[in-house]
């Protein structure tokens, strides 16, 4: 029956209050209505928390603004006591279709504004009411649920394939680590030792190495002592160096030149007294 809203700005053709407190406004539109006028009525019902459901005459065009707002629209055949619903055809599946609303990839009601529609007619006695508006018969509801489950399965499979492809292209940031194992030490080899090297930690020479013999004695150094002005070791006179002989010869020549004996001058050589053999 017709009833005004609480603000008394709209009066529905049929006002329905469900058991859960939801309120519905069933509108039977006989004449063509513009988009602007329908939007004004729709906003008034929304402000009053009333869900509006629209039934059009068979020869009346359904404004596409209803589909853009997500409001179901029905065509009422009162002589046949049937109602016709318009469902949107499934959308084509794009590369990222699994991330969008899966309901659009099957028959969906209400359709989108630019969707091709599929018409389904039902008897009025098979339809029901809930907080969202008019509900389909159980057979139609089961068919939509089955298609929705199939679409959900395809979406899950596509999502798994995409994730596997991404993992195969990306390197593992944390490769599996092998368990740590100590590296075996190399075998200890004997160090070659030179003769005379000391053993490590003992301070003793290696007994396996032959010890060198005693050092040879140095040769005796020539020595010329003095005894009465003559050399006491005549055996060493032959070993006098050339330099010493030259010094002696020059000194002897100088003494003979002045006819002065070296004994008179009191001069002694490092090698003893110089004998004047040519008086």
In short:
It contains five helices and twelve strands. With 279 residues, the protein is an alpha+beta fold.
Give an account of the 3D structure.
The structure is a single chain. By secondary structure, the chain is an alpha+beta fold. A hairpin with a 6-residue loop joins strand 1 (3-4) and strand 2. The protein contains five helices and twelve strands. The radius of gyration is 66 Å and the shape is rod-shaped. The chain has helices at residues 35-47, 64-68, 138-169, 242-257, 262-265, and strands at 3-4, 11-12, 14-17, 23-29, 51-56, 73-77, 82-88, 117-123, 128-130, 133-135, 226-227, 230-231. The chain has two domains: 3-169, no CATH class; 226-265, no CATH class. The strands form four sheets. It has a six-stranded mixed β-sheet, with helices on one face. Helices cover 25% and strands 18% of the residues.
Keywords:
279 residues, alpha+beta, 2 domains, two-stranded antiparallel sheet, 5 helices, disordered C terminus
- Radius of gyration (Å): 66 Å
Order of strands in the sheet with most strands: 3-4-5-6-7-8
Report the principal-axis shape: rod-shaped
Q: What is the terminal separation in angstroms?
A: 182 Å
Overall structural class, as computed from helix and strand content, comes to alpha+beta
Order of helices and strands: EEEEHEHEEEEEHEEHH
Q: Low-confidence parts lasting 5 or more residues at pLDDT below 50?
A: 225-239, 258-262, 273-279
User: Structurally, how many domains make up the residues?
Assistant: 2
Q: How many helical stretches? A: 5
Share of helical residues: 25-40%
- Biggest beta sheet summary: 6 strands, mixed
How much of the residues is beta strand, in percent? 15-25%
The overall pLDDT, averaged over residues, is 76
Number of strands: 12
